Input
Amino acid sequence: MNVPQRSESSAPSSKAKARPEPREQLFTIGDLAKEFSVSLRTLRFYEDRGLLSPYRDGTARFYREEDKSRLILILKGKQLGFTLGEIRDMLATKRGSLQPPTALSLNPEQIATQISHLERQRAEIEEAIEELRAAHKRLITPA
Output
């Protein structure tokens, strides 16, 4: 994709990244939304929270490969039940790391804590399901 020439009045915001290299492959917000099955609103929300920092040309957003890698990590973190604040911390820790670009920066304590948290959630969900099944059964069973 060719990057549009930036006019003097469309300087990027302080959160936005510097102008991309001429040969750098860029992706629009629509490209990322489609590829990762997320909404445009979700991508804008992640940008507002400082998790993604696309190059801005006026109102247009252009994402780099680095942004795609960050989005993979954000979505993996959400899948594993981490908050956006926790994910932001992981992304900050990841900078300069030797780990693959799509590997979360987790320590054993974080993993154990998250497992415990998810197990508690699962128990609460299973209890709620049982309560609903019992209520459903009472309602459909003749007296």
Remarks:
- The chain has five helices and three strands.
- The chain has two domains: 9-106, 107-143.
- Strands lie at 27-28, 55-57, 60-63.
- Helices lie at 29-36, 40-48, 65-79, 84-94, 108-140.
